[in-house]
Design brief:
Length: 224
């Protein structure tokens, strides 16, 4: 069984991935052409007793992708190299003091307008070249999918931030795919997402997430 924080990320990202594979309690997502970590990783349970790690490694290599794994704590039982940490607030809010900046407007957009949305998101994460691939992937996956709502933040008529909100069956929502260039846009996006459903669960690679239950997810490349 996956730790709750990994199960939460999997619930959000699995509907957006191209491939989903389960083996011994580990779950792998693969999404070629998209650089989102959670869409190209194997989520590992805390107890690796039922996981054939060699088979996981072989499968990744067979797909021509790095053996990237996500764990709810530092990878200590297997040799690997950590490449990223994602902070997850299970009752997430914007950074303290972040506000809705004057002149920032947030609106819901359709899947037909995901091009500028994806460009803003990937630009905020310093990887603008991946925007087109992400837009194509999400446009296909979001067709007929009513649990996700894409939000774009505008300033002076330009798209400057993006967020993908997911409704949760138990109430509230999650936003694990988002990006903003500054605190004003960040505050506007998270406030709009929280308005769609609270509590809001949110994750970030930056020190922007606060919450009652804040946890770290570690992404590592296996080196067996």
């Amino acid at each position: 069984m996956l730790p709750p924080v990994l199960a939460d990320l999997l619930e959000f990202h699995a509907p957006l991935s191209t491939v989903q594979r389960e083996q011994g309690g580990a779950v792998t997502l693969l999404t070629p052409g998209v650089n989102v970590l959670a869409l190209n990783a194997t989520f590992l349970p805390a107890d690796l007793g039922g996981v054939d790690v060699a088979a996981v490694l072989d499968w990744h290599e067979g797909q021509g992708v790095p053996p990237l794994v996500a764990t709810a704590g530092p990878l200590t039982t297997l040799p690997g190299r950590e490449v990223a940490r994602v902070r997850v607030a299970r009752a997430g809010t914007a950074r303290e003091g972040a506000g809705v900046g004057e002149g920032v407007v947030v609106e819901q957009v359709s899947r037909l307008h995901l091009g500028p949305w994806a460009e803003a998101l990937t630009r905020a994460h310093g990887t603008p070249g991946w925007g087109a691939g992400l837009a194509r992937q999400l446009a296909a996956r979001l067709e007929g999918e009513r649990t996700f709502v894409p939000l774009s933040a505008y300033r002076d008529g330009e798209v400057v931030g993006a967020l993908l909100w997911q409704a949760r069956a138990a109430g509230g929502g999650a936003a694990h795919l988002w990006g903003a260039p500054d605190e004003e846009v960040e505050g506007a996006l998270l406030a709009a997402a929280a308005g769609l459903g609270a509590p809001l669960q949110v994750s970030s690679v930056h020190e922007t997430v606060t919450g009652v239950e804040r946890e770290l997810v570690h992404y590592s490349v296996l080196e067996l």
